[in-house]
Write the structure tokens for this entry.
Amino acid sequence: MRYWAELAGYSVELARQELEAVLRTLGSTSPEPRPVAWGERVVAFDTDRIEEVARRLAFTHRLLLPLTTGTLADLAAALKEEGKSGGTGALRPASGNRIPDEWVVTLGRSFVQGGGRVDLEDPERAYVLHRGSTDPESLALSREVARTARLSLCRRKAADLPFRKPVTLTPLLARGLVNLAACPPGGRILDPFCGTGALLIEAGNLGYRVIAADKDSRMVKGTLTNLAHFSLDPTALTQTDIDGLAAALEDHFPVDAIVTDPPYGRASSTHGEEAEQVVERAFLALRPLVRPGGRLVLMLPVDHLPGAALSEWTLEFPPIPLRVHASLTRWVFALTPSPSRAT
Ligand SMILES: C[S@@+](CC[C@H](N)C(=O)[O-])C[C@H]1O[C@@H](n2cnc3c(N)ncnc32)[C@H](O)[C@@H]1O
């Protein structure tokens, strides 16, 4: 069935990639969201698992069922029909769409003329009004079919964790990064720089088996505490430098995906080593630990891979910038191991 997704403005490209990755995870054969003529924040996609798509997504606001397109008069007629089935409804403009109030009032009246009642607080049906991107006189009407996980992820704060540090990722960002891994349901996800475990919590909450490590024993202990807070158990968790990982957890490799937030700058402990050097070592150490086609999703403070990684990894999409604050932009990468060269 055809739906529309209303992507969050935080990073539209990241939201589009997340939706595509979730559709892949759920076995879609045509996962690529398609642009529609109703603003860059609305994309069309097909699925027969809409509730499951909604349960996973972090960077999309809501999922919509397209109802009709046309002029204001066409939409008024459609809403009158909708009103005939009785019940309550609310009509709101799509995020980022500028729509005159009087249009909304006109359409609301048509719904009431049909027999519906307006309830802006808790409507049985939430309608969304979209304005054409190239032709602002053309309109579209959709109905919300599902809210995504976004709202509950925004409410859950990193500060609520029993063990937290300045490096702790927000649940929203952590969930989005896990989704970008496009890991098959129930698969194994590794975070080799687990810190306080924010990524593992989201992976565990989605039913993935989690494997993790950190060089710092306090982080390993803290991650265990945080996972237990969500009644989650790691499949494996150990204290090791990235280079000792293969030997320390050899029975668990290759994993289906790696999602991680390596050390950067001064904010997280690198135990005396330059962060760039740790990251460079990581790209080589992680290459044999993920199965062919499995993704490595990570954030870097730069928009390019270190030279050592270039032949080992293939970009799944161009890196996407995320502005963390005025002086820090981080880039989201999704990579797969490059096929081994013939000898
Ligand atoms: C940016 S933090 C991870 C934060 C984590 N995503 C969270 O939400 O809490 C990076 C982590 O890498 C660990 N680390 C630094 N150098 C390492 C190395 N050589 N091997 C393994 N872990 C290392 C640090 O102890 C730190 O916990």
